UniProtKB/TrEMBL annotation:
A Pfam family reported for this protein in Swiss-Prot or TrEMBL: Rho_GDI
MF-aspect GO terms: Rho GDP-dissociation inhibitor activity
Entry superkingdom: Bacteria
Coiled coil regions in record: none
Keywords: Cytoplasm
InterPro entries with a match to the protein in the record: Ig_E-set (IPR014756), Rho_GDI (IPR000406), RhoGDI_dom_sf (IPR024792)
Any GO BP: Rho protein signal transduction
GO CC, any one term: cytosol
Listed name of the protein: RHO protein GDP dissociation inhibitor
Organism of this sequence: Streptomyces wuyuanensis
Cell compartments where the protein resides: Cytoplasm
Length: 143
């Protein structure tokens, strides 16, 4: 988890209907090598999921044009990139945003571990925070 005086990421949770919420153990995107990476979350192929972001805005100033940039890689190749405008926020919080639903791919070719880097930026392009985590797509839910 990366923190600036203007922004603090409090949590990331994966939500799948009919399953318990899966909190993501956050690892700093740029501090790899200091400790082993957390185990990937396990998700069943074809599942529809949502990502819930929780954050606070520091006492420094209000945030305008907050964006979340999500980049996903698999075996070192970028397989997904999206930028989502989250809006403007006053100092304080915590704030909670649930992103639009996504559906995981299906089939043996999709079953693998994916790395995710999430970056938060303001309208001026200032990077406010980064997080990284991974998930694994499997044929079935773990027991």
């Amino acid at each position: 988890m990366n923190v600036t005086s203007d922004f603090e990421l409090l949590g990331v949770t994966i939500q799948v209907e009919g399953r318990p919420d899966m909190p993501v153990r956050l690892a700093p995107a740029r501090a790899r090598g200091t400790e082993p990476p957390p185990a990937p979350l396990v998700l069943r192929e074809g599942s529809e999921f949502r990502v819930r972001l929780e954050f606070a805005v520091g006492a420094g100033r209000d945030l305008e044009g907050l964006r979340f940039i999500d980049e996903r890689t698999r075996q070192g190749m970028t397989v997904g990139h999206q930028e989502i405008l989250l809006g403007d926020y006053r100092r304080g919080g915590p704030y909670e945003i649930v992103l639009p639903p996504e559906r995981l791919p299906i089939g043996h070719m999709a079953r693998d571990v994916y790395q995710v880097i999430g970056t938060f930026a303001d309208k001026k392009g200032r990077i406010l925070g980064c997080e990284s985590h991974s998930f694994e797509i499997t044929k079935d839910w773990p027991h």
